[in-house]
Every structure is written in structure tokens, then in C-alpha cells.
From TrEMBL:
PANTHER family: GLUCOSAMINE-6-PHOSPHATE ISOMERASE
Documented EC number(s): 3.5.99.6
Lineage per the UniProt record: Bacteria, Bacillati, Actinomycetota, Actinomycetes, Micrococcales
NCBIfam families: PRK00443.1-4 (NF001684)
The name this protein goes by in its record: Glucosamine-6-phosphate deaminase
InterPro entries (alphabetical): Glc/Gal-6P_isomerase, Glucosamine6P_isomerase, Glucosamine6P_isomerase_CS, NagB/RpiA_transferase-like
Activity regulation details: Allosterically activated by N-acetylglucosamine 6-phosphate (GlcNAc6P).
Active site: D66 (proton acceptor), D135 (for ring-opening step), H137 (proton acceptor), E142 (for ring-opening step)
Its biological purpose: Catalyzes the reversible isomerization-deamination of glucosamine 6-phosphate (GlcN6P) to form fructose 6-phosphate (Fru6P) and ammonium ion.
Record family assignment: Belongs to the glucosamine/galactosamine-6-phosphate isomerase family. NagB subfamily.
Length: 240
């Protein structure tokens, strides 16, 4: 059973998770962090600025969950750019030790396996930060994704493209495909920390935490993991 923590607001969630991450890095200077994008994890990265300032982060490694396919890596909304801007630069991490799946088209058929090999070589992810989509997706594992899936190219659903259109000028600019860690990849992390805020996430949270374990709601895969922390505000907890 996941540990559920209900916090008053995003800042409190960020502070809580940042504290956990800072303790991990203090214990293990070469900790491997599983990084997420979207708006949900931003309070964590914000709180980490103060929490990690003065800490030796030179050996910290990180792997992002996912990336758009076919978007110029230099595009401000590529997850490579987002991770650089929100995580690597403000926290002073070594950019060579932080990876984002490669969504460039050339050699795309090998990028998933290469990414899996890199995670394995790093010894696996110690703490995986997760947001959740309104349809229950984690990473970009949309409904129907196999619980055994590994990093691979997927097609984005119309719903997710609409949800993410706010980061682009229009929905037409949102790529059609992505490369994402699989549910099997995510479940291999040693500790999963799923965050969600706002009423719009309440059904996805309830399904993930206490609904049937089903690929129709990919977030429900967390019920198969022995060490999960769910950090939500009152609104996101309202359907529990
Ligand atoms: C995107 C990301 C997910 C994220 C989800 C929720 O689709 N690939 O990793 O969890 O959006 O986004 P937000 O946190 O902005 O609500």
C-alpha cells in the first residue's frame, strides 16, 4: 500500500519531496534521480535549489522519463530543454550525468534500448519523481500500455496532446509521438514518488492508488511497487 501524504499546497509538496531527495544525495552522493517534466514536479525543483545549495552534487545522475519525438532538441519545450532549464542549470548538476531520452529521428529504433542500457549501467534509479496525466498516464505511457513495457516510441493520445498544447502555440505544434520509459522501467526504480495537484487529477489519483490494477489506467501500476509515496493536495485527494 502506498504511503499517501496530503499537503496544503504545491509548495509544501515541493518542500517534502526536496527534503527526501536532499537526504538521499547526502547518503549517496552518486544517487540516481528519476526526473519528470510537466508542471507537477516544478515545486520540487524549486525547493531543491535551497535544499541542495552547498551540497556536493557533482556525482548526482539523472534520467528523465520521456521526450517528444521529432521536436528539435533546442526547442524550448523539448524535455531536454526543460530539464536543462528547470533542473540541471538551477541545481548546478553535471549536464553529462543527466540524460533525457533521445527523440531525434535518426537511429530512433535504437534509442529506447540505449536508454535502458544507460539506466542499468548507472545501477538503476534510486528515486523516481512522477506526475500523472488526467487519463492516468505516467511518463507518456498512455492507457493500454503494458506493465512490462520498456523505453520505446509511442503515439500520444489526442487528450494528452490537448493537455500539453498550453506549452506550444497551438495543438498542431504538439508532436504526435514520444519516446518514454516503459511501465516496467518505471517499476524498476527503488522508490516512486507520485505527485498530483488540483481537482482535475483526482480521478487519476484515485484510480492509481485504489482502483483496479489495469493497463487502462497506467498509474495503477504503482500498486505493484513495494515503496511508493503519493503526495497530493486536498483537491487531488478528493476522490480517494
Ligand atoms: C506529460 C508528461 C508526464 C506528466 C503529465 C502531467 O504528459 N509526459 O510525465 O506527468 O504530462 O503533466 P502536468 O504535471 O503538467 O499536469
Amino acid at each position: 500500500m502506498a504511503e499517501i501524504v496530503i499537503v496544503p499546497d504545491r509548495a509544501a509538496a515541493g518542500a517534502l519531496v526536496a527534503e527526501e531527495i536532499a537526504a538521499l544525495v547526502a547518503r549517496r552522493p552518486d544517487a540516481v534521480l528519476g526526473l519528470a517534466t510537466g508542471s507537477t514536479p516544478l515545486p520540487v525543483y524549486e525547493a531543491l535549489r535551497a535544499r541542495l545549495s552547498g551540497a556536493d552534487v557533482s556525482r548526482v545522475r539523472g534520467f528523465a522519463l520521456d521526450e517528444y519525438v521529432g521536436l528539435d532538441p533546442a526547442h524550448p519545450e523539448s524535455y531536454r530543454s526543460v530539464i536543462a532549464r528547470e533542473v540541471v542549470e538551477p541545481l548546478g548538476l553535471d549536464p553529462d550525468r543527466i540524460r533525457v531520452p533521445d527523440g531525434t529521428l535518426e537511429g530512433i529504433e535504437h534509442h529506447g534500448a540505449d536508454y535502458e542500457a544507460a539506466i542499468a549501467e548507472a545501477g538503476g534509479v534510486d528515486l523516481q519523481i512522477l506526475g500523472v496525466g488526467t487519463d492516468g498516464h505516467i511518463g507518456f505511457n498512455e492507457p493500454g500500455s503494458s506493465f512490462a513495457s520498456r523505453t520505446r516510441v509511442k503515439t500520444l493520445t489526442a487528450q494528452t496532446r490537448e493537455d500539453n498544447a498550453r506549452f506550444f502555440d497551438s495543438v498542431d505544434e504538439v508532436p504526435m509521438h514520444c519516446i518514454t520509459q516503459g511501465l516496467g522501467t518505471i517499476l524498476d526504480a527503488r522508490h516512486l514518488v507520485l505527485l498530483a495537484f488540483g481537482e482535475g487529477k483526482s480521478e487519476a489519483v484515485a484510480g492509481a492508488v485504489e482502483g483496479p490494477v489495469t493497463s487502462s489506467l497506467p498509474g495503477s501500476a504503482i500498486q505493484l511497487h513495494p515503496h511508493v509515496t503519493v503526495v497530493v493536495d486536498e483537491a487531488a485527494a478528493s476522490a480517494l
